[in-house]
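in:
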């Protein structure tokens, strides 16, 4: 491997799609540089913004908290870390512990909200169906998590929420929307699109960085890694798409970056044209496409099943 393109030091990583070879120090700096460029290119964060970093406690979100901490060092009170406790026994506790520790180390406030407090049930309870569930675990979890992040961001008085979605996540979501025939949702992937259904603006500062590079950054920065994965993570279509894209990248290096650029191009041509009008949800008042938002619809379904499990007789079980 040739020497570091930036400083001539010992090579650590070659970025296939750009041809750069970097030493570990320059590689680490390059992640902060790339994040800064993405933020500025899409006007993601302004000087007066209070940034809520959505921190699950996994390596990606802890890395984002560190990078944003480095970039916004002089005004750390402009950053707050927010975490959602879904109520997944044996999994989320460790992640929340990591989230708390890194926030404390950086000196940023850490706000935690739980599904139990917000919706009245934990994710474990919500997913404990005896018969077949109408949608995958991740679909349930994702709908509630987005609402929980909004609530945490409002509680933290943030003006913008930064999530750690990386280039791999972006390409996976793009392909999954195509597979679901969900063209409307492609518009949501436009980095310049502001989704009115979220009370606080959402940005993805890692969207131009490969997942593998975020993992290397985490490793070099001493970010703690979780010892267990979510028990539901291999259930959904996403894990199949992830495996397929990883195989394509291994056989054709740079393929994910090409797909990412193509996705952005398609989305920019669709900009605004594929987004439906919304009406206020009749139950919670949040925007919805047909009178009831997805949170209220799913919550009603889950409540019916949770009540049945807690009290089968009262719920009509005999
Ligand atoms: Fe939720 Fe799925 Fe992530 Fe588990 S893998 S935390 S169920 S979205
Ligand atoms: Zn609603």
């Amino acid at each position: 491997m040739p020497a570091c393109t930036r400083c001539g030091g010992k090579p650590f990583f070659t970025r296939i799609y750009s041809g750069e070879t970097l030493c570990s120090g320059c590689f680490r700096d390059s992640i902060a540089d790339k994040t800064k460029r993405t933020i500025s290119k899409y006007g993601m964060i302004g000087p007066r913004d209070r940034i809520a970093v959505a921190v699950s406690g996994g390596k990606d979100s802890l890395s984002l908290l560190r990078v944003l901490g480095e970039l916004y060092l002089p005004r750390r009170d402009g950053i707050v870390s927010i975490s959602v406790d879904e109520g997944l026994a044996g999994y989320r506790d460790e992640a929340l512990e990591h989230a708390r520790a890194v926030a404390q180390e950086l000196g940023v406030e850490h706000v935690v909200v739980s599904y139990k407090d917000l919706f009245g049930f934990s994710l474990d309870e919500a997913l404990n169906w005896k018969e077949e569930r109408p949608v995958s675990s991740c679909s349930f979890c994702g709908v509630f998590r987005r609402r929980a992040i909004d609530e945490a961001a409002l509680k933290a008085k943030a003006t913008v929420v930064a999530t750690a979605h990386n280039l791999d996540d972006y390409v996976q979501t793009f392909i999954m929307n195509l597979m679901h025939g969900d063209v409307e949702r492609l518009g949501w992937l436009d980095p310049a699109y502001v989704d009115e259904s979220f009370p606080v603006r959402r940005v993805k500062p890692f969207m131009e960085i490969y997942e593998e590079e975020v993992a290397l950054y985490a490793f070099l920065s001493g970010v703690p890694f979780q010892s267990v994965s979510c028990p539901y993570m291999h259930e959904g279509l996403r894990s199949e798409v992830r495996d397929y894209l990883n195989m394509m990248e291994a056989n054709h290096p740079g393929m994910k970056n090409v797909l990412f650029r193509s996705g952005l191009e398609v989305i920019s041509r669709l900009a605004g044209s594929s987004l439906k009008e919304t009406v206020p949800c009749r139950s919670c008042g949040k925007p919805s496409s047909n009178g009831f938002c997805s949170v209220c619809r799913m919550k009603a379904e889950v409540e019916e099943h949770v009540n049945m499990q807690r009290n089968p007789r009262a719920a009509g079980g005999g």
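note: Strands lie at 13-15, 20-22, 51-54, 79-85, 109-114, 160-162, 201-203, 279-280, 287-288.
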